[in-house]
Amino acid sequence: MLSHIKIVLVETTHPGNIGAVARAMKNMGMDQLRLVAPKTFPSADATSRASGADDVLAKAGVYDTLSAAIADCQLVIGASARCRTISWPELTPRECAGQTVHNPEQQVAILFGRENSGLKNHELDLCHYLLRIPCNSQYSSLNIAAAVQVVCYELFVAAGVEQPLAVGDKDKVPKASAQQLESFYGHLHETLIDIGFMHPDKSKSIMRRLRRIYNRIQLDTKELDILRGILRMSQDNQGK
Asked: For 41-195, where are the alpha helices, taking DSSP H only?
């Protein structure tokens, strides 16, 4: 869904940054990387920093000029942290995603400039929008790979292709039923009386508050089994 969007790096000095950008892109399901006059490429440093995104590096296009790199694109967006003398139409990464993701017929280039100086004014002249990443006004300099990661993340989310990860047994263990909970509350009440924490005819508000606590948690059946086991052990020890 994102193959119509090209990440274009202009005159990248450090090949490791090219690899880090490739990794950031692959994390977010993107593989269209274009390089304009990189100082060193291909490079072992780039491959090392790519950490498995070798396929993105292998298919990266290398161009002598920016004009050649964006020749087939209808929309060009330039990323910059520096304020410009002449005002420019600006987008945040999220707005950029909204403008680009859902129009796959339109070829898009998102430009990232040199590590130390960004894009030059004559390069911004080729852009329709300026992309600015909101950050600390007292320190707004992002590493190029970090900047690409932020932008690619917003594109990925806007495309709706994120896959929720199942962590552990989340969503696999059923929630405790009302009947199971009532049995647990009866067991809890009985145990609290046995250990002398509650008087049989008093402290009704305690049970009400305990119900609120456990209802708020929404116990699953495994969690309930653990709590019932604790209660049984407490009663057994009390019996001794």
From this structure: 44-50, 54-58, 66-69, 93-100, 121-124, 144-159, 178-194
